[in-house]
Design a protein that fits this description.
The protein contains 9 helices and 13 strands. It is an alpha/beta fold and 331 residues long. The strands form 5 sheets. Strands 4-3-1-5 form a 4-stranded mixed beta sheet, with no helix packed on it. Strand 3 and strand 4 form a beta hairpin. Helix 5 (216-224) packs parallel to helix 6 (238-247), helix 6 (238-247) crosses helix 8 and helix 7 runs antiparallel to helix 8.
C-alpha cells in the first residue's frame, strides 16, 4: 500500500514535507519515496490531509465515562458494562489518532483486559500501559473508585506487588489528596518518605514506575524517593520545579481536567465538592504549569480523560470545541 498526496510530519521538529509518499509493508512504514503514480500495487490518495506519528496521552481512565459524574456512573453500572464501555473508549481513542495511552486507574483490572485484547488483535485500541489500582492510604484519594488502600511500608510493598501480579506496566502512587474524592483537601502528603514509591526505597524496589498526584508536601516526598513523573502538579513551587528539572522528573499537567469541571459546573450535574475544589485550584494549576515551563521541566501530554466532561479521544480538540481564552492563559 502507498499513501499519496499528504503533508508529512515526522515528529522530530523538522518542517512538514510535501511531494512524498509513504510505502507500507505488513502494516508498517517501509519507505518514504517521491510522490508519483505507482507502477503497481494499491495506492490511497490522501490529498489535503496530514500524516504524522501517533499521539500519546499519558493520563487516561478508560473505565470512566467522562460524563458529569463518572464515579457514580461506574458505581451504578455492572462490571460487564464497565468493560464494554472501556472497549468502546479504547476504539474511540485510537480512531482520534492517539496510538499510546497510560491508563492510571481502572476497575477490577478491566483496563488490563482491554490492553491484552488490543495486543492480541482482538479489538481496536491504542497501545496501553496500565497501572491497575492506584495505591492510596486508607480513606485516601480514589479509595472508593480506583484505589488499593495501603498503610505503612510493608503494606505498600504488598499493594505494589499485587498490581504487578495483575499485569501492571506502571505503578501509580496517590501521594496526596485530589479533586474527585468527596472528603479531604486536594493537597497534603499521604505517605511518609520511606514508604513512597520511586526508584529508591520503600515500594520502589518492586515497582517499575511511580505516579504521584497533587500537593506541595507530597511532591517533596516523592521527589526524595526518586519518582519518574508527577501527575497534575497543581501546587508546584520554584524549588520543586527546579528539582524536577534536575532529576529528570516529567510533569503530566492534565490542565483540561479542572477547567472542564469549572466550565461545566453544577448546571452540568458535576458533584458540588468537585466543582468547589476545582474552582480553588484552577488558577494555581496554571501558575504551576508556567513554573515548570520556566524551570525546563519535561512536559508530557495528558488529559485525565474520563473525568467530568473530559471525554476520551479529545487530546487534540477540533476547531469547533477549541477555546482560545482558556488555553491562552497557559502561555
Amino acid at each position: 500500500m502507498i499513501l499519496r498526496g499528504a503533508t508529512l510530519i515526522d515528529g522530530t521538529g523538522a518542517p512538514p514535507v510535501r511531494d512524498r509518499a509513504v510505502v507500507l509493508e505488513d502494516r508498517r512504514i517501509a519507505a518514504i519515496v517521491p510522490d508519483r503514480p505507482p507502477r503497481s500495487g494499491a495506492a490511497l490518495d490522501l490529498g489535503g490531509l496530514t500524516l504524522l506519528p501517533g499521539l500519546i496521552n499519558c493520563h487516561v481512565h478508560l473505565c470512566l465515562s467522562g460524563d458529569a459524574d463518572p464515579a457514580r456512573t461506574m458505581t451504578d453500572e455492572s462490571y460487564a458494562a464497565t468493560v464494554v464501555g472501556a472497549v468502546v473508549r479504547a476504539r474511540r481513542t485510537v480512531e482520534a489518532g492517539v496510538t499510546t495511552v497510560r491508563d492510571l486507574g481502572g476497575r477490577e483490572y478491566a483496563e488490563i483486559a482491554v490492553r491484552d485484547a488490543v495486543r492480541a488483535g482482538v479489538i481496536a485500541g491504542p497501545r496501553l500501559l496500565c497501572a491497575g489500582r492506584a495505591v492510596c492510604i486508607t480513606g485516601g484519594h480514589g479509595w472508593r473508585m480506583l484505589g488499593r488502600q495501603a498503610d505503612g511500608p510493608d503494606d505498600l510493598r504488598r499493594a505494589v506487588r499485587e498490581q504487578l501480579r495483575a499485569g501492571a506496566d506502571v505503578i501509580k502512587l496517590v501521594a496526596t489528596g485530589g479533586v474527585m474524592t468527596r472528603r479531604g483537601p486536594a493537597r497534603g502528603a499521604a505517605h511518609p518518605r520511606r514508604a513512597a514509591c520511586g526508584r529508591r526505597g520503600g515500594a520502589s524496589r518492586s515497582a517499575p514506575r511511580g505516579r504521584p498526584r497533587h500537593g506541595r508536601r507530597g511532591h517533596r516526598v516523592v521527589l526524595d524517593a526518586g519518582i519518574d513523573t508527577i501527575e497534575h502538579g497543581v501546587f508546584l513551587t520554584e524549588a520543586i520545579a527546579a528539582r524536577m528539572a534536575t532529576q529528570g522528573t516529567a510533569l503530566v499537567a492534565t490542565l483540561i481536567a479542572p477547567h472542564a469541571i469549572v466550565e461545566g459546573g453544577l448546571a452540568a450535574g458535576i458533584p458540588e465538592f468537585a466543582v468547589k475544589k476545582s474552582l480553588t485550584l484552577r488558577e494555581r494549576h496554571l501558575e504551576s504549569f508556567r513554573l515548570a515551563l520556566r524551570a525546563g521541566v519535561v512536559i508530557a501530554a495528558g488529559t485525565d480523560a474520563g473525568t467530568p466532561l473530559n471525554p476520551h479521544g479529545t487530546i487534540v480538540p477540533s476547531w469547533r470545541s477549541w477555546s482560545p481564552p482558556a488555553w491562552s492563559r497557559c502561555r
